[in-house]
Automatic annotation (TrEMBL):
Secreted in keyword set: no
Superkingdom of origin: Eukaryota
Entries under InterPro entries matching the protein: Mucin_vWF_Thrombospondin_sf, VWF/SSPO/ZAN-like_Cys-rich_dom, ZP-N, ZP_dom
SMART domains named in the record: C8 (SM00832)
Organism of origin: Betta splendens
Keyword Chaperone (UniProt): no
Name this protein carries in UniProt: Zonadhesin-like isoform X2
């Protein structure tokens, strides 16, 4: 390296400039033959600390060594190269510290020619600070100068100067930080040993400290450079990330489980929803999103699959935009495989398992990467507004927490014990206890945790055999494959099979007003009202018997939304009372299961829901002509 750097003794004057600093320059020594010199401060050379230097001066060789005079046979730690012209060599050490914050130490050897102003001088500076360590070489004599920096006699670096006729002097420097392992030096930030099968590596970290590290799970490389990962499991509210760390989601938002944001990028999202309790959420659907092609594949409840919003009839397998979809009785899997990475997403209605493999160092983020990351960082833009509001519910007295804990701990017993070495059961047990001690043990919930654990075990190549018998469960099956519920409902399993029940928040928002559905809606010549089937069923109202005052006007059940809609208009009023004045048209009708709707005597086991709404007449003389609809909430009109 050729440069016109400042002359190196400038360092000395810097020492006296900073206030609050403690600087010390030790007495100088001059030598003209091989000598042992003491440093005033300990000094690190590639991971080994020394306090003395051995300067070897011979007719053809100059060497600075740390563990004895230079001798090629003893294979020492040395800086060795050609002899340079000198009369005597001056040595001094200096240390400097600043409020204990910064510390450095110099050892300087320079030839007296330094002061001759003809620049025919040589200088070596060994520098060791809290932030680094280096050896620098300044040479004013013309020609090519190469000094080998050796550890155990092996050259690990070179100080290389070609001092041309036009430059006064040149400068070269090498970083002498490093780690030693089995007599070999490793540079900071390099791997010393790495064992792809155990995933444990010894590294020389960037501060030149040897460290044992566990590689990222997806950096468990196979021979072909593809690196497998462990699974990430989301079961109910619990997220068990790639490292086996447990997190939990309490709200009803959509979260990024995994994002690979560069290269061929994908995202795995999970939406959480409440079921019977407002304060416990469950993973309700998972989606694989490919940002390149804009493909959005959603795996929903009941084994349903939607591709970009449209339902996909999936019997056993299909290929959609490069994504393979498989369905069997245990659930649905979406798998994307490209040349050097794969991601697979499994969902069974309760549990999602994500497995990815890719090149080492793939930049991944999301809850599967770190389940304790701040939720606002991983909340997706697909989240519904207000989803992060948390609710409380009264404790469920039917829950026997100690009995549930006993069951959850079966994951340490046979037949799961054979998995315990492959997958730590503790996060699964903790997730099981956290949920089962708050939520009633219904809807096959308690079988989900052993199933999730057995699934994670089989993703790691293990198996718990026919585990289900040991915990009183059926063989793994997707949850409620036979029942499609709407978005405000969830599937509940009872002795009589599957039914759609209202989600707790939907039910609570209606029970506070007594309403059984959406408010009635009026337009200029028609009106309609929609009732939620799950609210009717909660009250044991048989919706097929319901009609408006005119018994011929029955409701229409939407098979997707599970809303029962009653409509009428001015040409077919269905028994409505329609009144109007200059400002409003008011429609009043009633929904009932009574045969004679004009009968004013309402029997207790019969249903009578009256409702009305009004429509604001357009102001004929108004300059800004507007149509407005106003609705009257179906107030506490349910009568028995
Ligand atoms: C070397 O130094 C010693 C004293 O340190 C001195 O006596 C001797 O003359 C010097 N030799 C040369 C060649 O300068
Ligand atoms: C250098 O240190 C060694 C051991 O600490 C001591 O024996 C020797 O006298 C010291 N030499 C000088 C020149 O201070
Ligand atoms: C070093 O050089 C001197 C003078 O040129 C000579 O007397 C001496 O023998 C040489 N030593 C070696 C080891 O070559
Ligand atoms: C520089 O000074 C040294 C010692 O004073 C002398 O030996 C050398 O010849 C000088 N070099 C030049 C280029 O003048
Ligand atoms: C500098 O030396 C001290 C010992 O005095 C040592 O603890 C430290 O690690 C060294 N710094 C570097 C960067 O090698
Ligand atoms: C040193 O540099 C000069 C001029 O740039 C060049 O001619 C010469 O070959 C170089 N010598 C070596 C050993 O690199
Ligand atoms: C790294 O782990 C191995 C095996 O567990 C142990 O022998 C070694 O001392 C550890 N090394 C460091 C630097 O912690
Ligand atoms: C799915 O299976 C049903 C009956 O098993 C069959 O009628 C239907 O055509 C199949 N659909 C597809 C897309 O294969
Ligand atoms: C992975 O594959 C992509 C193209 O599919 C390629 O651009 C990339 O270099 C590959 N990476 C590795 C580490 O093989
Ligand atoms: C996970 O995220 C938390 C919160 O941001 C952070 O404190 C923690 O260090 C992260 N863990 C890892 C391994 O990245
Ligand atoms: C739920 O109740 C607990 C204990 O009464 C209270 O600390 C917490 O703030 C409540 N949370 C919400 C969201 O109301
Ligand atoms: C709860 O379960 C434990 C263990 O199964 C049982 O001993 C206890 O009687 C149960 N408690 C209640 C209140 O049922």
């Amino acid at each position: 390296m050729t440069s016109s750097m400042l002359r190196p003794l400038i360092y000395l004057s810097v020492l006296s400039l900073l206030a609050g600093a403690a600087a010390q320059i030790y007495e100088q020594q001059t030598i003209n033959a091989s000598s042992v010199l003491n440093s005033s401060c300990p000094f690190t050379f590639y991971g080994r600390t020394y306090q003395q230097i051995y300067v070897t001066i011979s007719n053809d060789t100059f060497a600075i060594c740390f563990n004895g005079f230079y001798d090629p046979q003893t294979r020492g730690d040395c800086i060795v190269g050609p002899q340079f012209p000198f009369n005597q060599i001056t040595f001094y050490t200096a240390s400097y510290s600043y409020n204990y914050y910064y510390y450095y130490c110099y050892m300087v050897l320079y030839t007296s020619d330094y002061y001759n102003y003809n620049f025919s001088y040589t200088q070596f500076v060994l520098y060791n600070s809290t932030t680094g360590a280096s050896v620098s070489f300044y040479e004013g004599n013309k020609g090519s100068w190469v000094y080998d920096v050796q550890v155990n006699g092996v050259t690990v670096d070179k100080l290389n100067i070609n001092n041309s006729a036009t430059s006064y002097y040149s400068y070269a420097s090498v970083d002498i930080r490093g780690c030693r392992h089995s007599g070999v030096v490793y540079k900071p930030g390099t791997a010393v040993t790495s064992d792809p099968t155990t995933c444990y590596s010894l590294i020389c970290d960037t501060s030149a400290v040897l460290r044992n590290v566990t590689c990222d799970p997806w950096e468990r490389c196979q021979g072909n450079g593809i690196c497998a990962s462990t699974a990430c499991t989301v079961t109910g509210p619990a997220v068990i990330d790639f490292y086996g760390r447990l997190g939990s989601i309490q709200d009803r938002c959509t979260y990024s489980l995994l994002s690979r944001l560069s290269g061929p990028s994908f995202q795995v999202l999970a939406n959480f929803q409440e079921r019977r309790r407002k304060d416990v959420s469950f993973v309700d659907s998972v989606a694989l999103v490919l940002s390149g092609s804009g493909l959005f594949i959603n795996l929903g409840q009941g084994g349903t699959v939607q591709v970009n919003g449209a339902p996909l009839a999936l019997n056993s397998s299909a290929l959609v935009g490069g994504v393979e979809l498989f369905k069997d009785q245990s659930g649905v899997t979406a798998r994307l495989s490209l040349s050097n990475y794969t991601v697979s997403v499994f969902f069974n209605g309760y549990t999602a398992q994500i497995h990815t493999a890719g090149p080492a160092g793939s930049p991944l983020s999301g809850l599967c990467r770190n389940s304790s990351v701040s939720l606002s960082e991983v909340r997706s833009a697909y989240s519904a507004s207000g989803c992060e509001v948390l609710y409380n519910d009264t404790a469920d007295s039917s829950v026997n927490c100690s009995a549930e804990m006993q069951r959850c701990n079966l994951l340490r017993a046979s037949p799961f014990a054979s998995c315990n070495d492959l997958v730590d059961p503790q996060p699964y047990i903790s997730a099981c206890v956290a949920t089962m001690c708050r939520y009633p043990s219904v809807d096959e919930l308690r079988c989900q945790f052993p199933q999730a654990y057995a699934g994670a075990c089989s993703l790691r190549g293990g198996g718990a055999g026919s585990w289900w018998g040991a915990v009183g469960c059926a063989s793994p099956q997707a949850y409620c494959p036979d029942r499609l519920c709407s978005s405000h409902e969830f599937c509940a399993r009872g002795a009589g099979g599957s039914v759609c029940l209202c989600r707790a928040l939907f039910a609570a928002s209606h029970s506070s007003t007594g309403a059984l559905g959406a408010p009635a809606v009026c337009s200029s010549n028609a009106a309609s009202i929609a009732l939620a089937r799950c609210l009717l069923e909660e009250r044991n109202i048989s919706y097929s018997a319901l009609h408006l005052r005119d018994g011929r006007c029955r409701g229409r059940m939407d098979e997707q939304t599970h809303m029962l809609t009653f409509s009428f208009d001015t040409s077919n009023t269905c028994g409505a009372v329609i009144t109007s004045n200059d400002s409003y048209v008011t429609y009043s009708n009633a929904i009932t299961d009574q045969d004679n709707s004009s009968d004013v005597i309402v029997r207790h086991d019969q249903v009578y829901i009256d409702f009305s709404c009004y429509y604001t007449q357009p102001q004929i003389r108004s300059i800004s002509f507007r149509v407005k609809t106003k609705c009257v909430r179906l107030s506490d009109a349910l009568k028995w």
